[in-house]
Structure to design on (246 residues):
C-alpha cells in the first residue's frame, strides 16, 4: 500500500505523477485550489484503480488554513509514504519589477507558502521516522537570470530549504528529493517562446520523479540533460554572464 499526498494536485506534472503511482492499494489525499478540477482529477484516479481518493480544497497563500488541511490529509490516510509538493506560479518578471506588491505576492506563493506546508509535513514524517517529501523547484533557481529572477530567487530559496530539511530528516529515516525541471509543456508555459528540443512532456518528467523517489535521490534534474546545461550556466564568469540575454 502507498499513501500519497499531492499538493497542487491539478497541475500537469502532479496529475501525471498521480497516474504513474496509481494502482491497486494506492490511496491519495489530493489538495488544490480549484475544486472542480480537483474532483475531476480524483474521479480519474478512482477510475484507474485507486483504492481511496480524498479531496481537500486549499489556497496555499492562506497560511491559516494549512494546519486543518494537513491534519485532514493525515486523518484520511493514517501514515504517509509520499508527499508531492507541486504548487507554484510563473510570474511576469516585468510586472514584478514595476510593482513591489506583486513581487512579494509571487514570492510568497512560490516559496513562503510552500515552506510553511513542508514544515508541517516534515514534522509528520519525522514522527513516523519514514516517508518522502518530493518538492518541485526549478532549474531557474540555479542562477539568477534577468528574464525571471523573481521566480528564480524563489526556487533558489526553496532548494536551499529542502537541502537543509533533507539533512535533518535523513537522520530519522525520512527523505527529501528536490526536483528541478527544465522547460515542460504545461498550461503555465503555454505561449512562451521555448526551444522545442529542450521541452519535455509532463509524463516524461513524472516518470523521472517516480524513479527518483523510489531510488531516494536527493536532487533530480529532469530531463537529465539539464544537469549539464546548468553546470555550464553556473560556470560562466559573472562579468560575461551579466552581458548575456538570458
Amino acid at each position: 500500500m502507498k499513501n500519497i499526498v499531492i499538493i497542487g494536485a491539478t497541475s500537469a506534472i502532479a496529475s501525471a505523477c498521480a497516474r504513474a503511482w496509481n494502482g491497486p492499494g494506492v490511496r491519495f489525499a489530493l489538495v488544490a485550489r480549484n475544486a472542480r478540477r480537483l474532483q475531476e482529477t480524483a474521479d480519474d484516479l478512482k477510475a484507474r484503480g485507486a483504492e481511496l481518493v480524498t479531496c481537500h480544497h486549499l489556497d496555499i497563500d492562506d497560511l491559516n488554513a494549512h494546519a486543518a488541511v494537513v491534519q485532514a490529509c493525515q486523518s484520511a490516510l493514517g501514515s504517509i509514504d509520499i508527499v508531492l509538493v507541486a504548487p507554484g506560479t510563473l510570474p511576469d518578471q516585468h510586472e514584478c519589477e514595476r510593482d513591489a506588491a506583486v513581487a512579494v505576492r509571487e514570492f510568497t506563493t512560490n516559496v513562503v507558502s510552500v515552506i510553511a506546508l513542508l514544515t508541517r509535513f516534515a514534522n509528520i514524517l519525522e514522527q513516523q521516522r519514514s516517508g518522502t517529501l518530493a518538492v518541485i523547484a526549478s532549474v531557474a533557481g540555479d542562477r539568477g537570470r534577468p528574464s525571471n529572477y523573481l521566480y528564480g530567487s524563489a526556487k533558489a530559496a526553496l532548494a536551499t530549504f529542502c537541502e537543509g530539511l533533507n539533512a535533518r530528516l535523513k537522520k530519522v529515516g525520512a527523505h527529501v528529493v528536490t526536483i528541478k525541471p527544465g522547460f515542460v509543456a504545461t498550461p503555465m508555459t503555454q505561449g512562451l517562446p521555448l526551444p522545442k528540443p529542450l521541452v519535455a512532456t509532463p509524463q516524461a518528467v513524472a516518470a523521472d520523479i517516480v524513479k527518483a523517489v523510489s531510488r531516494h535521490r536527493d536532487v533530480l534534474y529532469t530531463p537529465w540533460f539539464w544537469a549539464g546545461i546548468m553546470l555550464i550556466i553556473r560556470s560562466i564568469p559573472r562579468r560575461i554572464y551579466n552581458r548575456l540575454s538570458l
